[in-house]
Every structure is written in structure tokens, then in C-alpha cells.
Amino acid sequence: MEKPKGLDSPLVPHFIKVMSRTNVALYRLTGGRVGAKWRVGSGFRKPVPIALVTHTGRKSGRQRTTPLLYLPDGDRLVVVASQGGLPGNPQWYLNVRVNPGVTVQVGRVVRSMTARTATEAERDRLWPRLVDLYADFASYQSWTERIIPVVILEPRLS
After folding, report:
1. How do residues 62-74 score in pLDDT, each as one tens digit?
2. Residues 60, 111: contact at Cβ < 8 Å?
3. What CATH number should be reported for the domain holding residue 104?
4. What is the model's pLDDT at position 12?
5. pLDDT at position 2, please?
6. Do residues 15 and 23 touch, judged by C-beta distance below 8 A?
7. What are the CA-CA distances from residue 41 to residues 5, 38, 136 (Å)?
8. Is residue 19 within a helix (H) or strand (E), and if so which, with residue range?
9. Domain containing 91: what range?
């Protein structure tokens, strides 16, 4: 699939941010009854589950929440720092690399978790499952020169 024209526009990250804030508000208001499935792109016919990931800003120290598509993997969740195939990594990913302690909400259930970037071997194993979950991830990877990070969210031990 060819990279869409205008993807690198400075308006795209702003649009993503506005849509993310709307998704978070609806998700929280309804306990996930609204906003818990991604139905865009390849998710239109095969909706993908969404988790709310609350992370700490690496510069501001403020709590930020990002809705992310996820793949269940045992007691872990796997998310992708794709940002729609944009050239740079998303802010949430930069934040969790510095502050890996996150809170994850799936439906009404909230858990403390730790984020870490998958190793190359883990990414190689998980990537086909992620593309099966949401086929657009393969397109996003083809649109950027960066290796899109895969992030594993693991239950935090007390």
C-alpha cells in the first residue's frame, strides 16, 4: 500500500491528539462500552480492542492517557508505537522509556503495569500476531524508515 499523501503534515499529530482525547473521555465515561474497539482501517471489519494507558510525561511529570490497540498475551498486553507510520516515535513511547510504570485500563478494570520495549526476538515473534490483529500495522511499517517499536506491558509486582 502506498503511503497516503499528507501523512507527514504537522496537522496529523494534532488530529491524532484530538481524537485520542475524545476516545479517552468516552471510554472513561462509559467504562469502555464506547471507545473500547478500534473500527478504522482494517479494524472496520475486524474491530481491535483498545486499552487506556496512563503514563508519566518525561519532561512535565504530568499524567497522560493514551488509547492504544492491544494484543492480549497471557497476563501481559502488547502495544505498538506505530503512530500511523509517521517518521518519529509517539510521545507516549518516549515517556514510557523514561518512566516505565504505567496504569492500564481495559473496560472498567485498572491495573498497574510496567512497560518495556520488546527485544528483537520478541518483536519477531509478536509482529505477525500484531499484523493479524490489525493488518494496517504492516502498512505503517512500510511507510516509515524506523523500526516500529513493540511494547510489552507486564503486571507490576508490588
Report:
1. 999 999 999 999 9
2. no
3. 2.30.110.10
4. 67
5. 65
6. no
7. 16, 9, 7
8. helix 11-30
9. 11-155
